[in-house]
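Obj: model holo form, ligand = coproporphyrinogen III.
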Amino acid sequence: MTLPPSLDRSAYLLAARGERPPHTPVWFMRQAGRALPEYRAAREGISMLESCMRPDLVVELTLQPVRRYGVDAAIFFSDIVFPLQAAGFDVEIKPGVGPVVAEPIRDAAGVARVRPVTPSDVSFTTEAVRQLVSELGGTPLIGFAGAPFTVASYLVEGGPSKDFAKTKAMMHGDPSLWHALADRLADVAIAFLSVQVEAGASAIQLFDSWAGGLSPRDYERFVMPHSAKVFDALKQYDVPRVHFGVNTGELLGLMSAAGADVVGVDWRVPLDEAVRRLGTPKPVQGNLDPALLFAGWEAIEPEVDRILAEGASAPGHIFNLGHGVPPNADPDVLQRITKYVQSAHVPA
Ligand code: CP3
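Output (holo structure tokens):
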């Protein structure tokens, strides 16, 4: 697909392709959300997953942070469990908790409840992406999905988990059941990402937020083949494919090798060290600690400078937080960081 020149040469897409744009692009994971009063007003009385089914609301919630912060990319407003729900799986998002599954998956019958997602299951997604792409003009829209491991962790545990004990028990205790589940979830991710790209999203991000809970050995054996399947399937679209997880310092090389074009880095590993860990140098995204948002500008500014300097060692750098925007963050601070990064001298 040929992109309009303003989009094709946007700072985000240039950096994601390993080129040097005139300024370092910046956006924030979970930039749409409770930190914005206009978000809270628009979402009033509408559940999270219900919101994802209303194209007009999805468009508004996706655009809010672009308007407010002037970030270099929009991320489609949805959730990692939304495609499952749209395909009839019983999952809900509890405010302040996260995805919750009434009947967790523990056996083959459970795995069979995860049925394939078709474009007609998520027709509202196609509609919302099309509308967004036309409204965003030269600002790229990032499509996203949850990676098989992170989505599986919610389905097997029944909700958020700290140790992923049941998920790991399934991996090691019944590897074929685990691989069957992860394979179905790879297909769900492929379907949801393809719908977004076909409708006009110009990059995709695969969130394996909780992969950092695994050893490299387990990651390689149980997770990497399934994430690699997702990246392989998306290759035909020729859009940058971004991969991100929290606490993945030990996994950066493997997550890169799974097929990412851009690797997201949390705040635990400096970007220059992250690039070394990738093996093959690639563009990176990150890595301001979200906790710094509450520390005052005197503390934030030198951190942003450090990240920009270290990011210069990568073939491309997209400025971001090391994880999502906390719900109680101050929007003015995020706006100030955006302007600061966009006007900073790009280190050679
Ligand atoms: O702005 C954006 O980044 C786009 C929207 C987005 C949401 N979820 C909306 C959302 C994205 C990219 C996600 C991905 C997502 N969802 C991930 C991966 C990213 C990450 O943070 O690691 C994960 C792990 C989830 C699962 C999930 N959904 C959690 C843990 C929560 C938080 C629960 C809470 O209330 O604190 C959600 C709910 C959710 N997804 C909200 C939003 C804006 C908050 C719900 C609300 O506003 O009512």
